[in-house]
Design goal:
Layout lengths: L1 H26 L4 E2 L2 E2 L20 H9 L2 H4 L16 H7 L9
Antiparallel strand pairs: 1-2
Length: about 100
């Protein structure tokens, strides 16, 4: 019977942890990474998605200029999870007049 109580306690603990993380994720709408907030990436999404993206808007260029771009290099493989096509980052930076690091 002790094993069953331990198993039930572990399942309850795991459920409590999952619920806690879910609540935290719901409340955390933006994560600061390399001098930018992930919510600010929305300003650039149109310019880095699709086959023929439009030019970046001034608000997007402001985000690009404020970002610590070399710091973003290790995150490049994860940009697609934010809806950003990594191959379109360098053209965006060029259009904003920002020097891109070698990783882009």
């Amino acid at each position: 019977m002790g094993k069953n109580n331990t198993k039930m306690f572990m399942q309850f603990t795991a459920l409590a942890m999952v619920l806690t993380v879910a609540i935290m994720v719901k409340e955390a709408t933006s994560i600061p990474i390399c001098n930018i907030n992930t919510d600010d990436l929305e300003k650039c999404r149109p310019a880095v998605t699709g086959n023929y993206p439009p030019p970046p808007v001034p608000a997007c260029c402001a985000v690009a200029k404020a970002a610590n771009l070399p710091c973003l290099c290790p995150y490049k493989p994860y940009l697609s999870s934010f809806g950003i096509d990594p191959s379109k980052v360098r053209p965006l930076l060029n259009k904003c007049g920002v020097n891109s690091p070698s990783c882009f």
